[in-house]
What does this fold into?
Amino acid sequence: DRAGHGTLNTNSANAVYSHQFRFTRKFAIDAGLQASLFQKTLDWSKLTFGDMIDEKYGFIYQTNEKQENYHRTYLDFSAGLVAFTPRVFGGIAVHHLRQPNEGIIGTSQLPIKVTLHAGAKFAIGGKNGDVSISPNIIYQRQKDFNQLNFGFYITKAAITGGLWYRTGDAFILLVGIKKGIF
It folds into this structure.
């Protein structure tokens, strides 16, 4: 990720492992683990400071700020579970288990993020029972931030449409086509 025209750059490498635990023909739990390595760099040469400004001519001075190329490398871990049957599912994901310090200048501890989700799928008709509705809900919390999304999908054969609401500020519209495993 290159933010601010390359002022703040983030590179990451992730390794993900998942395993399915099948308890019956119709009930299973998928578990997943993720290890992530992040490297963030700040290019001070692309920043501007108040002491560089002349009130008449603009940016003409050199700053007295100590200019260094700061970087931070850190390791992070995440884990999640989803339990499902052919009709209902629910799960939890927990990110930033180490609560790493991602600050480049000083300390900025990344708080744990928890995501809970659940949904169901109900056949509602069609010639071959190929029309279904799927209500879903997602709740996320990270420190003092909370987000609740709820909505539904309607599927007829290969066509899916959906409408979601993110409480307080947004509607989300989805249209999709399913072909084979895609």
Q: What stands out?
A: Residues 160 and 176 are 5 Å apart (CA to CA).
